[in-house]
Amino acid sequence: MSRSVLVTGGNRGIGLAIARAFADAGDKVAITYRSGEPPAGFLALKCDITDPEQVEQAYKEIEAQHGTVEVLVANAGVTKDQLLMRMTEEDFTSVIDTNLTGTFRVVKRANRGMLRAKKGRVVLISSVVGLLGSAGQANYAASKAALVGFARSLARELGSRNLTFNVVAPGFVDTDMTKALTDEQRQNIVSQVPLGRYAQPEEIAATVRFLASDDASYITGAVIPVDGGLGMGH
């Protein structure tokens, strides 16, 4: 049965791979994006998740065209890397506002319809950095670590309503962002990964789609690393 799926930040990289995975399975997929040109084949909505009014408008358009959102993948995120002593207030708060508070906004709005329907799947995209830490990424790591506590609190709060909340923590993924690194930087990263390679975006997407499937109906509050073993023990 075709479901109404929303993937935030679904215009490129991991988000686009996730959107395509659901679309390939026959779901009606909406994506949000903040800049650039969106990919064809989706209900694409320009939406800055730091703006509550834009979030509300995006949901209204999705509900009008696809119906109540049944699966939400909160993927939108930003980085503003800097060593702590050089990190500005804006560097810190802007990352938190997008990655954490923005996720709060889209999840809260999705839950309105999910509670009425008495079913729903929410998957939050965190990062191995949120569990392992990374020098120069205190803001990003804090925002991604916070998603774990957020998801687990909601899993306890709303589990009785047949809503599940899970977290996927990708490691280093072969996207445009990592392709911009030098060969030396890429090799240094790969040397830390037990499987000895980057993830493909489709490998992250497969895990997300599993968590939204009937096969995962008894999984909630889980943190699933898809990181080639980089974060083992965390």
Automatic annotation (TrEMBL):
UniProt cross-references to SUPFAM superfamilies, sorted A to Z: NAD(P)-binding Rossmann-fold domains
> EC annotation?
1.1.1.100
Would I find Phosphoprotein among this entry's keywords?
no
Q: Which reaction does it catalyse?
A: a (3R)-hydroxyacyl-[ACP] + NADP(+) = a 3-oxoacyl-[ACP] + NADPH + H(+)
- One Gene Ontology molecular-function label: 3-oxoacyl-[acyl-carrier-protein] reductase (NADPH) activity
What pathway does the UniProt record associate with this protein? Lipid metabolism; fatty acid biosynthesis
Q: Which domain of life is it from?
A: Bacteria
Q: Which UniProt keywords apply?
A: Fatty acid biosynthesis, Fatty acid metabolism, Lipid biosynthesis, Lipid metabolism, NADP, Oxidoreductase
* A Pfam family recorded for this sequence: adh_short_C2
| Domain Ketoreductase stretches | 3-176
Which PROSITE patterns does this chain map to?
ADH_SHORT
Which EC class does it fall in?
oxidoreductase
Mark the transmembrane ranges. none
* Stored InterPro entries: 3oxo_ACP_reduc (IPR011284), KR_dom (IPR057326), NAD(P)-bd_dom_sf (IPR036291), Sc_DH/Rdtase_CS (IPR020904), SDR (IPR050259), SDR_fam (IPR002347)
Q: What does this protein do?
A: Catalyzes the NADPH-dependent reduction of beta-ketoacyl-ACP substrates to beta-hydroxyacyl-ACP products, the first reductive step in the elongation cycle of fatty acid biosynthesis.
Q: Which family does it belong to?
A: Belongs to the short-chain dehydrogenases/reductases (SDR) family.
> What interactions and quaternary structure are annotated?
Homotetramer.
What is the recorded name of this protein?
3-oxoacyl-[acyl-carrier-protein] reductase
Look up and give the organism this protein is from.
Streptomyces pyxinicus
Organism ancestry: Bacteria, Bacillati, Actinomycetota, Actinomycetes, Kitasatosporales
The gene is fabG
